[in-house]
């Protein structure tokens, strides 16, 4: 779960960096078109390079932060992505056609829209408990 979160944050950082770079390029083109002086055009080019470098630095910082969080979590032995106190894993096999789990877990169905709810729908005709 943590690696998925890390990947999602890295993808978002890359996308944001790409958008910032595109904005910098567009702003540079607008500034070059509106300026008549070669010195102003050069300043616009420098601004674009600064904006692109800042966007790339921000992306790298987010990636480094995510990597550090991952390493910190891996070293602590903690399981991430699950609330504390969450327990209970079914020990058995789940039957995809009936929706039941065999083993030590029981399934209770109270949904009247469930196709296996009620008498005569499935198995012995008894309700699930």
TrEMBL record:
Region listing for Disordered, in residue ranges: 1-129
GO biological process: embryo development ending in seed dormancy
Alphabetical list of Pfam families matching this protein: LEA_1
Taxonomic path: Eukaryota, Viridiplantae, Streptophyta, Embryophyta, Tracheophyta
Assigned protein family: Belongs to the LEA type 1 family.
UniProt biased composition (Low complexity): 98-110
Protein's name in the database: Uncharacterized protein
Biased composition (Basic and acidic residues): 18-72
Natural source organism: Dioscorea zingiberensis
């Amino acid at each position: 779960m943590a690696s998925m979160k890390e990947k999602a944050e890295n993808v978002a950082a890359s996308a944001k960096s790409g958008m910032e770079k595109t904005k910098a390029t567009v702003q540079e083109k607008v500034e070059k078109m509106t300026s008549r002086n070669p010195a102003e055009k050069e300043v616009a080019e420098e601004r674009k390079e600064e904006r692109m470098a800042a966007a790339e630095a921000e992306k790298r910082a987010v990636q480094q932060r995510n990597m550090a969080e991952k390493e910190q979590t891996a070293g602590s032995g903690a399981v991430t992505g699950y609330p504390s106190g969450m327990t209970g894993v079914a020990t058995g096999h789940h039957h995809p056609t009936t929706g039941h789990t065999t083993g030590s877990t029981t399934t209770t169905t109270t949904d009247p829209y469930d196709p296996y709810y009620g008498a005569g729908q499935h198995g012995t005709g008894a309700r699930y408990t």
